[in-house]
Amino acid sequence: MGNRKNTTRHIQSNRSESVRPVVSTKLLAYLAFFDATLALVLAIRIMTFGPGWRNWQTQQTQNLPGVTTLVGSTPTPGTIPVPVRKKRPSLTSATCLAEALYFESRGESQDVWEAVAAVVFNRATMEQMSICGVVYEPAQFEWTKDHPPTPSGAVWRTLLTTAQQCMGQRKELEAKYSGLTNFHDTSVTPRWAARVGCRRQIGHLIFYGCPSLLGYR
User: What single string gives the DSSP state of each residue in 144-203?
Assistant: First the structure.
């Protein structure tokens, strides 16, 4: 009986000693896998945000059409230069109004030019905006999407003079064409036309707007 107990103890002791190396091996394997993963992440990060990649990204940004970077600015290491859209030179109110007359009604009569100017004036008063703000307001005039260069020629000079005269007669034109806030060419029928009342045609343009509904004098 005594020999059997000693034999049992000896077997249990061998089993416990044989388990210990297995646990240590698994732990070492996990640590090695963790180190390898960490090294891979660091390598990817260095490749992604390294100087070579930043230089390539800067060149690609500078080569985009219509995009320039801030002049005299030095990018902070690890950052990408913010692209800045080239802005059109600031325009006077008379120039913005003349552009609206040119691109919307240059083949029309003086009465049509004054009515178009009155629409711009009424919108500026109603929305408390500048003349250029009304002309270049998004989704208003189709031609403003392409930002065309300032026109030139005899017709442009005539309309620029007309715009300057209209600026000096703003109150009179707002009173004469009180309430006009929209217009379009007779060749098209925009979706918003059905929602605006008081339609009247001047030349080849159709104007909309009711003084009583819009609260004008």
Answer: GGG-PPPP-SHHHHHHHHHHHHHHHTHHHHHHHTTT--EEEETT---GGGGG----EEET
- Report domain extents, the chain: 2-85, 93-214
Distances in whole angstroms, Cα of residue 155 to Cα of each of 105, 160, 182: 11, 9, 24
Residue ranges with strand state E in 48-194 = 67-68, 84-85, 182-185
- If you search the block for the tokens 């300032």, which residue do you land on? 150
Count of C-beta atoms within a 10 Å radius of residue 203: 18
55: left (phi over 0), alpha (psi -120 to 50) or beta: alpha
Cβ atoms 102, 153 nearer than 8 A: no
Q: Where are the beta strands (DSSP E) in the chain?
A: 67-68, 84-85, 182-185, 200-202, 205-208
Give the CA count within 13 Å in the CB-facing half-sphere of 182. 19
pLDDT in tens, 52-94: 444 444 444 444 443 333 333 444 444 444 433 344 557 899 9
Q: How far apart are CA 84 and CA 70, in angstroms?
A: 7
Q: If you ran DSSP here, which 8-state letter would residue 112 be given?
A: H
Identity of residue 124 = A
